[in-house]
Amino acid sequence: MSHPSSDSHHDDDFLEDGIPHVSVKEYVTGFVLSVILTAIPFWLVMGKVLPTPAITTLVILAFAMVQVVVHMVYFLHMNPKSEGGWNLFALIFTAVLLVIVLIGTLWVMHNMNTNMMPGTHDMHQMQEAAQSLP
Questions:
Q1: Cα–Cα–Cα angle for 84, 95, 101, nearest 5°?
Q2: Is 26 within 8 Å of 74 (Cβ atoms)?
C-alpha cells in the first residue's frame, strides 16, 4: 500500500472542480464573527466609550475592514490556496478598493460638513442681522 502524499491531504479540502469543501462549522464561525464585529462598533457608538468621535470613526472603519475579510474568507471561501492563488489577488484588490472607498467617503463627508454647516461665527452674524431688522 502506498502512503498518501502530503499534497493529497490538501486536495481533500477541495471538490473536483477546485471548489472548496466547507462545513456548517465554518459557516457558523463566520456568522458568529460577523455578529461580534457588528456588535462591538455598535456598543462603542451607543456607549460613547472612546474619548473622541474621530477615534471612534477610525475604530469602526478598522472593524469594517476586518468584517469584509471575514466575509470573504468564511462565506466566499477565498484563500491563497484556492484557484491557484488568484483569490489572493482578488482579496488584495478588494482591500485596496475598500481603503479608497472609506477614505473617499470620509473626505466627502468632511467637506460636506465644512461647507454646508454654518459655523458659530456665521450664527452670530445671522443673529445680529436678525436683531437689526425693524
A1: 145
A2: yes
The pLDDT tens digits for 44-74 are 999 999 999 999 999 998 999 899 889 988 8
Neighbours of 87 (CB within 10 A): 19
pTM of the model: 0.56
For 95, residues 6+ apart whose C-beta sits below 8 A from its C-beta are: 65, 68, 69
- Give CB contacts under 8 A, 24+ apart, made by 75-79: 75/27, 75/30, 77/20, 77/22, 79/20
- Can you name the residues that pair with 14 across neighbouring β-strands? 20
- 71-130 pLDDT tens trace: 988 888 777 776 777 777 877 888 899 889 989 998 999 898 888 866 667 777 777 888
| Dist. CA 20–CA 11, nearest whole Å | 9
Backbone angles phi, psi at 69, to 5 degrees: -65, -40
C-alpha closest to that of 82 among 15, 4, 31: 15
What is the distance between the alpha carbons of residues 76 and 120, in angstroms, rounded to a whole number? 49
